[in-house]
Design goal:
homodimer, about 140 residues, mainly alpha, Arc Repressor Mutant, subunit A, binds FE2/S2 (inorganic) cluster, DNA-binding
DNA sequence: TCTTAAATATGATAATTATCATATTCTTAT
DNA sequence: ATAAGAATATGATAATTATCATATTTAAGA
């Protein structure tokens, strides 16, 4: 469904959502280990997310990655789009072009409503929402 | 969501569902062109599907690929599993291990119900069902 | 201002997936 | 039997994705 990169990015961002803050910046190596993702790999992804202002960072001594209040308000979908682009989630299952209501492929009626719902949910849920669920013990992060 | 291989395989199988029969075998080249997939690529996929008895084939003069009545009764999901394996559809979105109700990842509550529904639908719908929909003009094949 | 510790930019390598090519085997009809 | 037309088996190449590595830039503190 998603690429490995998106999965890793989501894990990292959610980890930051739970553990970081403007006063609690976290370095790559302290993110990589608990979420169980290769350090160099997650570093690259974090840099990209930072460049796209999905997450925040400062360099140098005492630097690291973190989420601002504003970052926390973002929908989960932002992370996905930032890494994979929008195409993957929205393209038709059978043709490789965009999904078309007027000339639906044979799987459209099965797949499209669910995809719409999924995207809607990922747009509604913010990083903060998920962070709260994790902290309430309704879901688990490291796995 | 699915790999390119699965998409191609589905297109080919549905093409066969609509156009072939025990008395109407179709050769690779006559499948590849209308579904707009490279011949050598789809050939390999068709061979694999044939080996797994998702579709039928005979070689030699007058040979080709086709679907028997029994083939037509199969759920769409069979095609997907035959090419991609079962893992891809069933694994957790965030960890790379299997999805777990008792220790759900932060996206589980959003994603899991929809995935279950999707799998259910793909299990219920047979190739014949989709073929009929195409023939009724409810959906379109080549795209 | 200089040293140090961090992210950033850039790119190299490995693994997987997608694509292409061809010699072999089987089936039908001559 | 044998010639021809098809799938089959096998493997090679290309493109994309995943992974790793490192030199450069920036910020903080001595
Ligand atoms: S047209 Fe194929 S999924 Fe919508
Ligand atoms: S535990 Fe992650 S999707 Fe179910």
């Amino acid at each position: 469904m998603f690429t490995n990169s998106v999965k890793y990015a989501l894990k990292a961002v959610l980890f930051l959502a739970v553990h970081s803050g403007e006063e609690r910046k976290i370095m790559v190596k302290d993110i990589a280990e608990p979420i169980n993702v290769p350090k160099a790999y997650i570093a690259k992804l974090l840099q990209e997310l930072s460049k796209q202002e999905i997450i925040s960072s400062t360099r140098g001594v005492k630097g690291g990655f973190y989420l601002t209040e504003s970052n926390l308000k973002q929908p989960v979908l932002n992370v996905i789009y930032a890494i994979d682009g929008t195409y993957r989630m929205n393209s038709c299952l059978l043709s490789l072009e965009s999904c078309n209501e007027y000339k639906p492929c044979p799987l459209h009626h099965i797949v499209s409503p669910m995809r719409s719902k999924l995207i809607e949910s990922l747009k509604e849920k913010t990083l903060e929402d998920l962070s709260i669920e994790i902290q309430s013990g309704l879901s688990y992060l490291p796995l």
